[in-house]
Amino acid sequence: MIKTDLVLDAKGLACPMPIVKTKKAMSGLDSGEILEIQATDKGSTADLKAWAQSTGHRYLGTVEEGNVLKHYLRKSSEEEKEEKKHPNVMKNEELEQKIDANQDTVVLDVREAAEYAFSHIPNAKSVPLGELDEYLNELDKESEIHVVCQTGNRSDFAAQKLTAAGFKQVINIVPGMSEWTGPTGKSVN
Amino acid sequence: MTNKKVAIIASNGGLFDAYKVFNIATAAAATDQEVAIFFTFEGLNLINKEANQQLAMPEGKEHFAEGFTKANVPPIPELLAMAQEMDVKFIGCQMTMDVMGLEKEAFVDGIEVGGAVTFLEFAKDADVTLTF
């Protein structure tokens, strides 16, 4: 099961109802939150992809369970406009080479669990930004930690937070998963 | 993001016509598009308070009634209410209403009554224009 902020039951509804309900559910969420839409309308996958594209939200993916389609969307956020502050940054390509050379490279993926589920760097660990505090004790303060998110903003914030907590070598990966061309893994079918 | 505009002309009054019109309209409205529908000639049935409760299937297609129930397709008045709730603008054609001897009171609340130019004014910079 993927952790989400809201589950919308649109099972048994025909087009255009899943879209209409999605629109309503989405307006009640905050930026960056994750919506799961459960639908049985087979056209809903294509429709929700198109809907997300024209409304500016992000379609993460769909999981099929029996005859139920579970779609995951992330509400658009303004984070793209923020200025990055953490000084230690590394480009996607450099991280890819580093992982190639050393499989034990520590990578933290601070996106939401649903974003991680559909596509992530194979040896990255999922630590959503909101849960970062609970993981601090599990990490080694002296070792290199690479932090990645979708566009480098949430990871910038996480990197600052880790540094403030006493971690010595925290590196923000830019631009992040939005332009990652290296190998990826999925934790859903 | 500036909203896209969708202009629809509804000129037929059967059940299938009604679904085509209201499905596209509600889907567009749910996608943050500004929608106006111009109801003219038989299309007026779609917003007529009484007629739209019992729109006819095309002749020989009555057996689809079961399919509509099975697919859980909402009744037309429900779709209509949903469209209005999402600010889809309904324009009733004044000329057709005069010809048919119908008053504004025969139609659902919240419609605008206007002539061809009222619709054209909205449609002139529409991104999508559809006729049903």
> What is the distance, rounded to the nearest whole angstrom, between the alpha carbons of the first and last residues of chain B?
28 Å
The helix tally of chain B amounts to 5
Total strands of chain A: 9
Secondary structure class of chain B reads alpha/beta
CATH domain topology of the largest domain in chain A: Oxidized Rhodanese, domain 1
Task: Estimate the helix proportion of chain B, in percent.
Answer: 25-40%
CATH-defined superfamily of the largest domain in chain A: Rhodanese-like domain
Biggest beta sheet summary of chain A: 5 strands, parallel
Percentage of residues in DSSP E strands of chain A: 15-25%
Query: How many structural domains in the coordinates of chain B?
Result: 1
Order of helices and strands of chain B: EHEHHEHEHE
What is the alpha-carbon Rg of chain B in Å?
Answer: 14 Å
Helix content of chain A: 25-40%
Averaging pLDDT over every residue of chain A, what do you get? Answer: 93
Could you describe the largest sheet of chain B, including whether it forms a barrel?
Answer: 5 strands, parallel
Order of helices and strands of chain A: EHEHEEEHEHEHEHE
Strand order across the biggest sheet of chain A? 5-9-8-6-7
Task: Please state the oligomeric state of the protein chains shown.
Answer: heterodimer
CATH architecture of the largest domain in chain A, by name, is: 3-Layer(aba) Sandwich
Describe how the helices and strands are arranged:
The complex is a heterodimer of chains A (189) and B (132).
Chain A: E1 6-10, H1 17-27, E2 34-39, H2 44-55, E3 58-65, E4 68-74, E5 89-91, H3 92-101, E6 107-109, H4 113-118, E7 124-126, H5 132-135, E8 144-148, H6 154-164, E9 169-174
Parallel strand pairs in A: 1-2, 5-9, 6-7, 6-8, 8-9
Antiparallel strand pairs in A: 2-4, 3-4
Chain B: E1 5-10, H1 15-30, E2 34-39, H2 64-70, H3 76-85, E3 89-93, H4 94-100, E4 112-114, H5 116-123, E5 128-131
Parallel strand pairs in B: 1-2, 1-5, 2-3, 3-4
Helix pairs in contact in B: 1-3
